[in-house]
Amino acid sequence: MSRILVVGNGPAANRLVQHLHQHGHQGPVTVLAAESRPVHHRPLLTSVLAGRLDPDALRLPTPPGTRVEHCTATAIDRAGRVVHARRNGVPVTHPYDVLVLATGARPVIPALPGTTLPDGRLAPGVTTLRTADDCDRITGGTVAVLGGGPLGVEAVSALVQRHTPTTLVCAGPQPLHERLGVTCAGLLGERLEHAGVTVLRHRTAVRRLPDRLVLDNGAEVPADTLVLCTGAEPDGRLARAARLRVRTGIVVDDELRTDDSRIHAIGDCAEHAGRATAGYESALAQADTLAAVLTGREVRHRPARPILRLRTHAADLCSAGSPAALDDPGVRTVVLVDRAGRRYARLGLRDDRIVAAVVLGLPEAVAAVSHLYQRAQPVPSDRLRLLLGIRSEPPSADTRAHPDTVVCRCNNVPRRRLAEAWRTGARTPPALAKATRATTGCGDCSGQVEELCAHWAHAAEREPEPIS
């Protein structure tokens, strides 16, 4: 029996061991987890920050037959096929036949005076946003978020939902301007401000003080807590020290194998086909491929088409494909701008298929465009109807919706199963997540599940009809 050792205990590792057992792997599987908390569902982290979910709702169950060791891997002995680690300061070793590196990514810490202590640790009142523990560190009456990328936008939206005065500091002209373009990014900035966020554009921080952030123009931003959303980089330290090939990430082939045939890498730490692709969906796809490979199936990894979906109450937003493709001379564009409603859409089409897109403030269009793009399906001939097909009620709350309509695509949870769980006592989104695993995939169905809870509760108050 093959001994599989996994270094890292994030969603990619959890998905891998789950599918290994589903594919019939009979040997021992051991996971080395550096974090003390159980593995959690990172896409819903900002829901915890907003106070909409309890941290326990993010826990992913450890698949049966998996042993989790809480220790920190320190070195790989490739000749002896052993990983050296430390548990509570005590050296330990873990042998392997197959080693999987799922070490994820490390936050990029800017060289900003006042953010770190002499030993390199973050100063009190400064945190990144990668774990549930980080959410606990965001305290005090005011918060500043540094970084205008996706995580920064999600973080400030979550913080104002819990009524915390929050400032977003962007070095660029608008949040996500490089990805969305000038017009759409401007509308996103307006949406954030309308939600209660103070957005500072074209500003950089020069020093962090205990209760404020000093900017390049001399202004001071109140900040009991500073949240660093300044990017992340693949964690290839362990692989590099073992003389495995590392460029941006740990280089792997189509079987997600490194240049050592017994060692694989998946998730944010891996670089496949010349790209280190971060993101939850990409990590799960790699885990699925590797589980099949390690159980003897003829499989080659093919990366999913890149798409960004923001999880924020301030705006429904998706960005699909490369922004540069929208300006390709061979691509036909369809543009809709509603400045008063802060809505925007731009589709790049080739052969009636979406090669790139940006959609803001059009919930149904976000869902439809994401679906068509990821499956490379042709768009309807009526482009305007595609973008403006907004119903009076969300589809999830439509009383005419079929019970077998799938609400959570990641875990294949239909409306019928959610209704059954609601009838048996799961009356909140966290309870439904625990009962059905809905919302514990990419998180995009979180709003639909909340709407269903509200719809069923209202229906139950009006008349005791069966919930479906």
Supply the helix-strand structural class: alpha/beta
| Main pleated sheet | 5 strands, parallel
With strands numbered from the N-terminus, the spatial order across the biggest sheet is 3-2-1-7-19
Terminal CA distance: 47 Å
User: In total, how many beta strands?
Assistant: 27
Domain count: the total is: 4
What do the pLDDT scores average to?
A: 89
Structure overview:
By secondary structure, the chain is of the alpha/beta class. The protein folds into 4 domains: 4-106 and 232-294, FAD/NAD(P)-binding domain, CATH 3.50.50; 126-228, FAD/NAD(P)-binding domain (3-Layer(bba) Sandwich); 316-388, Enolase-like, domain 1; 397-462, Arc Repressor Mutant, subunit A, CATH 1.10.10. It is 27% helix and 25% strand. The chain contains 13 helices and 27 strands. The protein has helices spanning 11-22, 45-50, 132-137, 150-161, 177-180, 182-195, 237-241, 280-294, 363-374, 383-388, 415-423, 429-436, 446-462; strands spanning 4-7, 29-33, 66-70, 72-77, 82-87, 90-95, 98-101, 105-107, 126-127, 143-146, 166-169, 198-200, 205-209, 212-215, 220-222, 225-228, 232-234, 250-252, 263-265, 270-272, 307-309, 317-320, 332-338, 343-350, 353-360, 406-408, 413-414. The longest helix is centred in the C-terminal third of the chain and has 17 residues, at 446-462. It is globular, with a radius of gyration of 23 Å. 43% of the residues are buried. Residues 390-400 have low confidence and may be disordered.
